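Re: your question from the hallway

Yes, I did run it. Sequences:
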Amino acid sequence: MIKMLVFTEVFFFLSLIMAYVYMVYYGDTRSTKELQALHISTTSLFTLVLLGSSLTFYIAERNYLKGNIKQLKTWLIITIILGAIFLVGQGNEYYRLINEQITLGASIFGTNFFTLTGFHGFHVFVGLILISILLTMAFLGDFKDKNSTVIQTIGIYWHFVDAVWIVVFTIVYVLPLTLNA
Amino acid sequence: MDETIPAPFQNMLPAKVLNRDQKLLQWISSVDHKQIGIMYLLLSLLFLVIGGGEALLMRTQLAIPNNHFLSPEAYNQIFTMHGTTMVFLVAMPAIFGFGNYMVPLMIGANDMAFPRLNAFSFWITFFGGGLLYFSFLAGGGPDAGWFNYAPLNEYNYSSRQGIDYFAIGLLLSGIGSVGGSINFIVTILNFRAKGMRLNQVPLFVWMIFVNSFLILAAFPCLNAALAMIEMDRQFHAHFFNSASGGSALLWQHLFWLFGHPEVYIAMLPSFGIFSEVFQTFSRKPIFSYAIIASSSVAIALLSFGVWVHHMFAVGLGNTVNSFFAASSMLIAIPTGIKVFSWVATMYGGSIRFSIPMMFAIAFLIQFTFGGLTGVAFAIVPIDWQLTDTYFVVAHFHYMFVGGAVFGLFAGLFYWFPKMTGRMLDEKLGKWFFWLFTIGFNTTFLIQHVLGLVGMPRRVFTYPDLPGYGTMNFISTIGAFMMGIAAIVLVIAIMKSRKNGVVAGKDPWDAVTLEWYCDPSPDRKNFDKIPLVKSRRPLWDLKHPENPDWKSKIN
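Structure:
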């Protein structure tokens, strides 16, 4: 089921990404100023944090399969913390950009940037809720038997959200570097 | 020989048998696929009456030249809501209704894979529809047409809240459709009866299966576009505002990237219903199951490569237009194959002209006709000449009504005995069929001519040019015939539900598994079903001397 959900989400993000690429890179309005305002260095750091959370989730899943519930809880907590740090980083970036008068309504860049990263951030947020539910289930002892597929299912979603971020990061942050060079 | 059916999640469900004393509460709280299916169908019927009423208002306005029955503002809202209602709140719920009721029965399952998701999908569709119609109470309905083009959908051009209700309402019902589709795919993949391979499922199930993938790929494009338009309208974003670097064209691309597959989303289940009807009422196995099944996959894939044929008049250049003209014509091949397969199914069969079969035959003629105008439309200069005229209106009504809706009616008459245990009144049914078919063709055949002589669509009235008044009046008469037909249908349903002829398990002598369980089954559909060995499990059961799996038909 979750794979079907991911399938449909792919098309959703494709639509947003196509709009972004088309308007920011091919549109009549140049977004040079806004593109230069993006901080690739700090965002790279938060990107690593998010990718790290995929790894920690994987470790959590492995521990569940080994029956190591205590480790499972620890790694789930670490995953949630990493995901939350990413969201804080995104909030920080938003705060900075809005202070530089780059907002949703200010320009076509803002429109696309905040919609695309905003929807991604929302997916991260939903992922955090899901993982928190997993954590609660772990504390309630629901994972004592090894036949549950819940962790694996949420895992597919979480890895998907990270994969989307890799694409978004590449297009929003990395691509301008190559274009300006 | 009999296999016990696994009853997935039976213990998780609120009730093992339907508690019919609880009446309405029982329906509202239901997670049973049959009750949800019926609720979907009732929702569809309700909106069919509403959307039909809107059509009649339009036809009344257009009956004579320079009419002032409706104001231009009201007319804009009504044609917008007519299209939106018919596509999103009649066709989609009807498809999900039949799918919900029949897919588990046809594959020998006891419920859908995710009963609660199923209930969620229905209710969010229901409330999405409610929200869409609430717009009339909140100062006026959406008025930019069902495809809601930018910049007409922007705040500057439509400052009332109609479009906001449109966007949010469709977003919600779209989420419902996506949820329902996920449910269908998982159900069909995992809950087939023992022995039933994926290439042995009834064609209706196969069509729903392909359709679900189409929905999963098409709806997110619409949802993204709707999210963008809400960003524009509520947060002053610039997605579709060309003046500040956005692109009004983006809306068209995203909408038709959804919108063209949506046409096939509405059609494919009807193809499935007809495939069942043709083989049952011709008393022959369906001609070339594999080709019908695989051609629907071809249609599904092609449908994502043709959306620009809605945009030929935009001016994207000859290269783009030629590409999409060619890809649009390609669609005629897999659909043509289907038509030939159905004709070949009838050929040499002993045909019974029951009402589902009558709808099926009328469909074949109308659908072929609508298909031919469609192929003509794929030729760019013809499109340039006829775009936004009544020719377009006539063409797509031949597909949507003459194709998809006829399929839904055939399905209604075919499966009514299974849903209620009683036959849908044959006499009233024939009245309904003839009134509706004649009314439909009266309404829309002449609109081809109106379009050819240049009458534009979506304009609230027209000048008294030669022939315009007469042709429009004929069209209006046809529309009212369909209106009367709809009343006949509602009466027939209400009458037959309580007092119809009692149908047995298998009134049509059909060959698929849904006719193996009791009529109007209780919470649990099957206790046991035979091991499926062929595409016609019920035939095998009825004819043990000559089962399919021993012959080559399998």
